[in-house]
Design a protein that fits this description.
The protein has 185 residues and is mainly alpha-helical. 60% of the residues lie in helices and 6% in strands. Strand 2 and strand 3 (121-124) form a beta hairpin. Bound molecules: zinc ion. Zinc ion is lined by residues 107, 109-110, 125, 127-128, 132.
Length: 185
């Protein structure tokens, strides 16, 4: 784990903590060590949640998050009797959600920065609306799953959003554990 990646994680973590009005009491981000981070990560008991942190913030391979998500979606699909043609579409659904939420594609125009220099001015990137990442539109998502656009809109769009919500829950669980471990008392 490079120090640059650790700094990136801490910056993100700290921003999230401020967002939920949970200011680290007297703790200083700058003095946290690599060991602190490892101990924090080890405290996350949910495997998918800790792997998600590694994949999203530290750039590790997301195979485990993807397989955990696929298994959970498959369970939900059978329990709720989702109607679908091929079992593999559930796997594609998991891969799509990971692709969108965990390792989004960097915008090629601004190389993920959200802005670029035009003549001498820095301007917001018009290709990604300043977000730095490219999101798929409905047709592209449908193609990714191997269904038609109308089938996607009617059936898979809400399943896709549900998959995104599961990832968001894992992330917030991991953040809670990490912030407790890193910024206690
Ligand atoms: Zn861009």
């Amino acid at each position: 784990m490079s120090s640059e990646k650790v700094t990136h994680l801490l910056t993100r973590l700290n921003a999230k903590i401020s967002n939920v009005q949970k200011i680290p009491g007297g703790g200083n981000v700058g003095v946290l060590s690599f060991e602190d981070i490892c101990i924090g990560l080890a405290k996350i008991r949910n495997r998918a949640a800790s792997e998600l942190i590694l994949a999203k913030w530290l750039g590790y391979d997301s195979q485990i998050v993807e397989s955990e998500l696929r298994d959970l979606l498959s369970l939900i699909a059978h329990k709720e009797k989702w109607n679908f043609q091929k079992e593999e579409t559930i796997g594609r659904l998991a891969a799509l959600a990971i692709d969108e939420e965990i390792v989004p594609r960097k915008c090629s125009k601004c190389v993920g920065r959200g802005s670029y220099i035009k003549q001498t001015l820095r301007v917001d990137c018009d290709k990604c609306d300043g977000k730095g990442v490219l999101k798929r539109n409905l047709s592209e998502k449908a193609r990714y799953l191997g269904v038609t656009r109308s089938v996607f809109t009617k059936t898979w769009d809400k399943r896709h959003r549900r998959a995104g919500m599961i990832l968001a829950e894992w992330e917030s669980l991991a953040l809670r554990v990490l912030s407790d471990a890193l910024f206690r008392d």
